[in-house]
Write a sequence for this structure.
């Protein structure tokens, strides 16, 4: 059952990332039927892939570590010329969660979807709760650098969630073969101190 859920989540993730990259109203963030403040998703506005030309430096900085906290000076070295705005990152997460809630509420109110109303209203509710939770994040976000295995970077997307103080990073991608995974450095802005990381990758044809 766990593998089945992972496969379903992979296809949802890839569809959202590839088929409708600009359709906020249809961007599902929460896959569970409940909202738990201790187990929350991190939207892509808070996830940054290190540019090709600075990846070697990022790997050197990390050494054998799988993750580490980085300061603003290190961020500037890894992402030269790029500015990071905590409020913008959080506001985008709020906007996307709210837009999805409105989308589901609108669908649930349509008589055509009468027999699907319950789960649509539930999806709307959990996304409303995510937006409310995100609005309550007042502390400065904490940037962490991670090494993440991926199959095909160009056809994939990241799914990141924070469970307690452990960050879970999943990368799903499309491809016609199964190559070995390779490591990609990413930076994730977390609302909590991260004490451990769990990473995984999957491939769909």
């Amino acid at each position: 059952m766990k593998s089945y859920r992972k496969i379903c989540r992979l296809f949802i993730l890839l569809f959202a990332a590839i088929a409708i990259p600009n359709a906020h109203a249809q961007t599902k963030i929460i896959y569970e039927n409940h909202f738990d403040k201790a187990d929350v998703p991190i939207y892509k506005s808070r996830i940054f892939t290190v540019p090709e030309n600075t990846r070697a430096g990022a790997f050197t900085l990390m050494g054998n570590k799988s993750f580490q906290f980085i300061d603003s000076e290190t961020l500037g070295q890894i992402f030269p010329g790029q500015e990071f705005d905590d409020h913008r990152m959080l506001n985008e997460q709020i906007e996307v969660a709210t837009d999805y809630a409105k989308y589901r509420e609108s669908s649930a109110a349509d008589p055509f979807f009468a027999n699907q109303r319950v789960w649509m209203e539930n999806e709307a509710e959990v996304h409303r709760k995510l937006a409310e939770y995100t609005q309550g994040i007042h502390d400065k976000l904490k940037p962490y650098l991670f090494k993440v295995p991926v199959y095909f970077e160009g056809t994939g997307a990241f799914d990141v969630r924070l469970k307690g103080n452990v960050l879970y990073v999943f990368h799903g991608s499309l491809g016609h073969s199964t190559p070995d995974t390779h490591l990609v450095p990413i930076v994730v802005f977390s609302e909590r101190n991260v004490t451990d990381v769990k990473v995984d990758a999957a491939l769909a044809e």
About this structure: Confidence is low (pLDDT under 50) at residues 1-5, 15-23.
